[in-house]
Amino acid sequence: MSRARCIAPGSKFSRGFGKWLLAALLAALPFQASWAAEARNVLLLISDNHTRPDLGCYGHPQLRTPSLDALAAGGTRFANAYATTPSCGPSRAVIYTGLLTHYNGQYTHPHAPHNGVLADDVTTVFDLLKRGGYRTALLGKGAFGARQGQYEFDLFDSSVQRDMSAATARAETFIREAGEKPFFIVLASHDPHPSDRPIAARRKSGKQPPRQLDPDTVVVPPHLPDRPDVRESLTEYYELIEQMDVGFGEALEMLRRVEKAENTLVMFFSDQGAPYPNGGYSHYEPGVAVPMIVSSPKARKRGVVSEAMVSLADVTPTVLDWTGVAPPPYKLHGRSLLPILEQESPSGWDSVVLSHVMHEVTMYYPMRTIRDRRYKLIWNINYRTPWADASEVTRRAPWAETWRGGRGDKFIGQRSIEKYLWREPIELYDLEADPLELVNLADDPSHAELRLALSNKLLARLRETGDNWLERYQLPMPGEKVKIGEMSPPGYSPPRRGKGEQ
User: Fold this and answer.
1) In this structure, are residues 87 and 58 in contact, taking their beta carbons and an 8 Å threshold?
2) Cα distance between residue 54 and residue 75, in whole Å
């Protein structure tokens, strides 16, 4: 340990040292002022279980979301953004690490009894930025599983996840206390995840939405059945979207009030699609198609609608690019969005790869998917077991009777219950001709060449991103039988990282 030398006050050395110190401080002032002016802050706004079309700026005919519409008008709205896993805990792990689920280690929810945590060699964006001199805060929904040294925030408060006004107030205090030190703040709302409380009960208690919607007039998307109980659930979901928009509007106004809007990157997105059958918790479009808006104060072109195919794995690389903080020693699975914010149709952004393991420990159903501009190929690795929706879906009012068979239902929306529960090992859909993903083309001879090309592209990406499921499962190619119960041949899977027990 070094020790400070005692300098006698008034000595010749003391006077000389004092002049040197004063000169050094004065010389440093312009640099410090420049650093403060150029410090780049980040504000993430995250909604919960929110499907892409359900915002005014994405064309919903009924919803009023002026705050996020304005953010899109002043930034870039991504028309093809995807959650890589349709489960909030694992999805947030992807968001905060830039790594797909099969690699980052949080395969399921963190809370009991699921116990999902990140792999011990993975570092979160919070910790990277904190090491880089940032103050970090997560206010709202956490859903993260961590080991020691991961998610070491300066401030964390999950009690405000249904109250963005309170979260914004805490964020403002946090920013003002930081002074000129840069900040990374996440405001993670639990809205619009519905609770399915009866409308009468919601009207009498709790925070009231900006306006009350009529269940008889709400828009029912085509992948859901049009029934009174479904309409009642959608009413709450839509009201919570408008409530979320008000809260995020307050956060954006706060950013202007503290005079940080001109050096803060703002990103809004959802962690996954809405929690309804035929979408939520699966790789069908309503489960993984999410809204995403990015507003950079450095962008010259505003109101851009980007056709780039992006995913939530791109969030961490974007934040690191914006802040200039060094990435971790391993390769991230996403890319920075900053270079394409002002481009409507950037080249090289034509597909996304999605990876899911399970939502809850009782829902082990690994899926690997590639989605390009027109087609989607889903590999259902555990297809011999029935699909299991989240317990919150199967137990609540809109769906309980359907699952028990009390209604005699044969369909969920336009998909048969039989096909919903028992899926093929490979699903291939033409999203242009079949947006509801009802006609599986995987075994259609006229699509064999397409299936082969997509399969090879998916397989290459899984190897590149360290998917060790390939040790025991082989992606079936056109005309091949599914190989069950045998190890993959040498070289088929990527090498394991580390020297864990075999």
Assistant:
1) no
2) 18
Distance CA 261, CA 281 (A): 35
Considering 42, 45, 72, 88, which one is annotated as catalytic? 88
397 found inside a domain: yes
* Structure-token match 């409308």, residue found: 199
Q: Convert the pLDDT of each residue in 361-380 to its tens digit.
A: 999 999 999 999 999 999 99
C-alpha–C-alpha distance, residues 274 and 358, integer Å: 17
Are 250 and 43 in contact by the 8 Å Cβ rule? The answer is no
What does the CA dihedral 71, 76, 81, 87 come to, rounded to 10 degrees?
-30
In Å, how far from its chain's centre is CA 266?
14
pLDDT digits (tens, 9 = 90+) for 85-117: 999 999 999 999 999 999 999 999 898 888 899
In sign, the C-alpha dihedral spanning 273, 279, 280, 283 is negative
Find the largest Cα–Cα distance for the chain: 97
* Cα 311 from Cα 317, distance rounded (Å): 11
| Host H or E run for residue 449 | helix 448-464
**Any alpha helices (H) in 207-333, and if so which ranges?**
228-257, 285-288, 315-323
Is 399 within a domain? Answer: yes
Q: Beta-carbon neighbour count of residue 118 at 10 Å?
A: 22
| Length, in residues, of the chain | 502
88 is catalytic: yes
Cβ 171 vs Cβ 251: under 8 Å: yes
- The tally of domains found in the chain comes to 2
In whole angstroms, give the CA distance from residue 285 to residue 283: 6
Burial class (CB in 10 A: 0-12, 13-18, 19+), 82: buried
- Same domain, yes or no, for 75 and 138? yes
Question: Could you tell me the pTM of the whole model?
Answer: 0.91
Where would I find the H helices in 344-396?
Answer: 391-395
> Would you state the structure tokens that stand for residue 39, as one six-digit string?
């410090």
Please count the other Cβ atoms lying within 10 Å of the Cβ belonging to residue 199: 16
Q: What CATH number does residue 101 fall under?
A: 3.40.720.10
Residue range of the domain that includes 206: 38-351
CA 27 to chain centre: 44
Q: What is the percentage of the chain residues whose pLDDT exceeds 90?
A: 76
SS3 215: coil
Q: Which residues have CB under 8 Å from 415's CB, separation 6+?
A: 223, 278, 436, 438
